[in-house]
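Lab notebook, bench 4. Still working through the backlog of constructs that have no structural model yet. Next entry is a single chain of 235 residues. Request: give me the structure tokens for it.
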Amino acid sequence: MVTDESFSPLASGVLAPGSWLQIVVSDSGTGIDSKDVPRLFEPFFTTKEIGAGSGLGLAQVWGIVKLHGGEIDVSSQLGVGTTFSIYLPVVAATSPTAGKPEKVVIPHGQGEVVLVVEDNAFLRTALVASLKQLGYQVWDAKNGEEALQRMSKEGAGVNLILSDLIMPYMGGEELIRSLRAQGWAQPIVVCSGHPEATTKIEQLYSHGSISWLPKPPTLTQLAHSLDEALHPQES
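Model written out:
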């Protein structure tokens, strides 16, 4: 368990104060060239030969760790090996209650199409992977402009839009206004951890079928948020 606030993981620079659980995975392989280390978590980046690797494995690991509020660091030395360190925030255990514990039910999709709009490539990759795991078909866009272009071509096939709020070129707020102005009525879940989200989302509710999901969400939060947005009368 790590509590040293001076530790600087690669992903964010400094661990937030508090208690952290550390998971270390090491190998004694060939190591990684220092010039490649900063790009290890980029989607589709791989040092393997063409056809030998997709470059998505570490990107998904990074995204999953971030979805759980964690950090990941890597150190490597050519000819010696590589060490990945994952840091997850420690959550206080709840007191056990008497009787049989309730089973946690995670709602799954039935093949509905979700358009994920997220400028962070790592998080976008993780969200796509998580939604597919939950039974959804997933399309993605890296900003509002790209999302609007996709909607103009294939919007009739989209059941729900999961969008970040703060993005370059066109953010979530402008995207929502543009979608509603163009007549698209699909439910929109705004996924954001930005400080402005709590105030902006209040203004966006007037556009109808808008809900907010704090970032980063857990898989359970993500599943329930989409299920409630798609089936509001049943929730």
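Notes after review: The first strand starts at residue 20 and ends at 27. The first helix runs from residue 57 to 67. Flag for follow-up if needed.
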